[in-house]
UniProtKB/TrEMBL annotation, chain A:
GO molecular-function terms, A-Z: ABC-type sulfate transporter activity; ATP binding; ATP hydrolysis activity
UniProt keyword annotations, A-Z: ATP-binding, Nucleotide-binding, Sulfate transport, Translocase, Transport
PANTHER family: SPERMIDINE/PUTRESCINE IMPORT ATP-BINDING PROTEIN POTA, SPERMIDINE_PUTRESCINE IMPORT ATP-BINDING PROTEIN POTA
Protein name: ABC transporter
CDD domains hit by this protein: ABC_CysA_sulfate_importer
ABC transporter domain location: 2-236
GO biological process terms on file: quaternary ammonium group transport
GO CC terms in record: ATP-binding cassette (ABC) transporter complex
UniProt cross-references to SMART domains, sorted A to Z: AAA (SM00382)
Keyword Cell division assigned: no
InterPro entries: AAA+_ATPase, ABC_SmlMolc_Importer, ABC_transporter-like_ATP-bd, ABC_transporter-like_CS, P-loop_NTPase, Sulph_transpt1
């Protein structure tokens, strides 16, 4: 179990993290979700030992590792830009963590080689062991970085924006694949992302962060359906904020005669399985997005419709 | 149905970047004017002297000793510069300290200083009666007027080449690569030897080649500290000047020819090694 206790970190005068507490169970897949500047990457790096907290402690399985350097924490870290060793072959990259071990703990050469081959198979790059990273595509490099991190049999796998640099299709494939790999290998993993869709799809639990604080920790279902703060509500999934402070998701609106808000329709287009209706509140021009089931007829552009909320939330702290 | 056009066969790849014809023509003309025509004069001149007399002068004992001295000391100096230039670049890139800009400017000084000034200063320092020489002399180490002195002068001259070649590459080397090595359990020495050093090796190589090339051709700083004893501390460029002063233009040309061919072969080889490396990395 990983326990993070009251972590505080400042960069000069800039407070990056304030009193973060977090517990992670073995086998969990955790997403640290937040906008840039929310402190999510700093927290990940502190857990890894690449950055040191000003206050607080990090425990791995009950041991305080706060003062243990990164190389001794046995964590696998996948960097945003992969950070592969460009002058080494893919197989040598993967084997690096084993070859730098002290002679007493280092497996035999043949064993290291076999291990690298096995990992190449795990990340589906068999036969590419002799290539150099410069000869691979982005998605392939990403998987090499992952294999390299897994080679040291880490007790914890940390991924910093693992899909950030990839195009949409590759991203989606890798996402599913990583999810399977995590389960298959029984890993405990934490990944950082600013993409709420990615967090909701992959994680067992999502940690939503903002301005160096945790706003909410919960399952994807919880953070989406029961956002704890106004920030979570509009950062995770789409939300309309009405002038009276109500937060309503586009799919929680219905176009109905009994509604009390009147909306002038500016645009209608198909978005996946539904119609997206964009309009403005007649009252004060607030932009409103509404999802209408694809089987129903959408309103026409220029119409004025009445809408009602099937589900709405209000927050004591309206947020920014 | 797309229209079919046949592109005229061409020896260069099609490119959207304009101006290839103009710039390539200008490059060729410029290179010819500045490099190729003067150098071809060497060929023409030495071709006129006949093979036998070319060999006699170009490969005389005195000339051979001078080549050995020139290339040997240049090589030694380039090696020393590779080591210490790397160190200087390392410090300049990776640490912030007061006076960093001053030190950085000092590195370039050998570029700007008249080489004769460097030669005279070094001779004054390393002569048996000089500030440094007076302590080395009792130990039996003679620097001025020996090949060691020549090497010292060439180290002075070549330092900026290594520092300025390595510096940008070192600065460019991402912090994340080192962090990756650290997360994988590598210690500092392993990280340097297996991650950082191989990454900057090509730049170090370039700096080494430049320092070497500069050392081979260096004249001004060396003639003061070397003592210019024929057969012992006479470098090849000096031998050429000596020949010229004796109105032996053919002799000077022959020696120049040999030096040029050897230098070109060395530089060409270094470049070839580099481009093979680059291709292998797929960069």
């Amino acid at each position: 179990m990983i326990r993070v206790e009251n972590i505080t970190k400042r960069f000069g005068n800039y407070p990056a993290l304030h009193g973060i507490d977090l517990e992670i169970q073995p086998g969990e897949f955790i997403a640290l979700l937040g906008p840039s500047g929310s402190g999510k990457t700093t927290l990940l790096r502190i857990i890894a030992g690449l950055e040191f907290q000003d206050e607080g402690h990090v425990h791995f399985n009950g041991d305080d590792v706060s003062d243990i350097p990164v190389g001794k924490r046995n964590v696998g870290f996948v960097f945003q830009q992969y950070a592969l060793f460009r002058h080494m072959t893919v197989a040598d990259n993967i084997a690096f963590g084993l070859t730098v071990r002290k002679a007493s703990r280092r497996p035999a050469k043949a064993e290291i080689k076999a291990r690298a081959q096995e990992l190449l198979r795990v990340v589906q790059l068999e036969g590419l062991g002799d290539r150099y990273p410069g000869q691979l595509s982005g998605g392939q490099r990403q998987r090499v970085a992952l294999a390299r991190a897994l080679a040291i049999e880490p007790s914890l796998l940390l991924l910093d924006e693992p899909f950030g640099a990839l195009d949409a299709k590759v991203r989606k494939d890798l996402r599913r694949w990583l999810r399977d790999l995590h389960k298959q290998m029984g890993l405990t993993s934490i990944f950082v992302t600013h993409d709420q869709e990615e967090a909701l799809e992959l994680a067992d639990r999502v940690v939503v962060m903002d301005h160096g604080r945790i706003d909410q920790i919960g399952t994807p279902e919880q953070v989406y359906m029961e956002p704890a703060t106004a920030f979570v509500s509009h950062f995770v999934g789409e939300t309309n904020r009405l002038p009276d402070g109500r937060h309503i998701r586009p799919h929680d609106f219905e176009i109905a005669a009994h509604g009390r808000d009147r909306v002038l329709v500016d645009n209608v287009f198909r978005k996946g399985g539904s119609w997206r209706v964009e309009g403005r509140l007649e009252e004060d021009g607030t932009i409103i997005e509404i999802d209408v089931d694809a089987h129903e007829a959408p309103p026409a552009i220029g119409d004025t419709v009445t809408i009602a909320a099937r589900r709405e939330r209000t927050f004591s702290n309206p947020g920014d | 149905m797309p229209s079919m056009t046949t592109r005229k066969a061409s020896w260069r790849a099609p490119s959207v970047l304009p101006g290839f014809g103009l710039t390539f023509g200008f490059t060729l003309a410029w290179l010819s004017l500045i490099v190729l025509i003067p150098l071809s004069m060497l060929f023409i001149k030495s071709a006129g002297m006949g093979w036998q007399s070319f060999v006699d002068v170009g490969f005389s004992d005195r000339a051979l000793t001078a080549y050995r001295l020139s290339f040997g000391t240049a090589l030694a100096a380039a090696f020393v510069n590779a080591v210490f230039g790397l160190l200087v670049a390392w410090v300049l890139v990776r640490y912030a300290f007061p006076g960093k800009r001053v030190i950085s400017a000092l590195v370039d000084l050998p570029f700007a200083l008249p080489t004769a000034v460097a030669g005279i200063a070094l001779t004054a320092l390393y002569a048996p009666s000089g500030w440094v020489g007076q302590y080395l002399d009792p130990l039996g180490i003679k620097v001025a007027f020996t090949p060691i002195g020549i090497t010292v002068a060439l180290i002075f001259i070549g330092l900026p080449f290594v520092v300025r070649s390595v510096e940008p590459v070192l600065a460019d080397l991402g912090k994340d690569v080192e962090e990756a090595a650290a997360t994988l359990g590598a210690n500092r020495a392993q990280t340097f030897a297996r991650v950082i050093f191989p990454a900057i090796l090509p730049a170090l190589f370039t700096g080494f080649a430049l320092a070497f090339a500069r050392g081979v051709g260096e004249y001004g700083s060396v003639i003061f500290i070397s003592g210019n004893m024929p057969g012992r501390t006479e470098i090849a460029p000096l031998l050429i000047v000596t020949q010229l002063e004796q109105y032996n233009y053919d002799g000077a040309t022959a020696i120049a020819m040999v030096m040029m061919l050897v230098s070109f072969a060395v530089l060409f080889t270094l470049n070839a090694v580099q481009s093979i490396r680059r291709r292998r990395l797929g960069a």
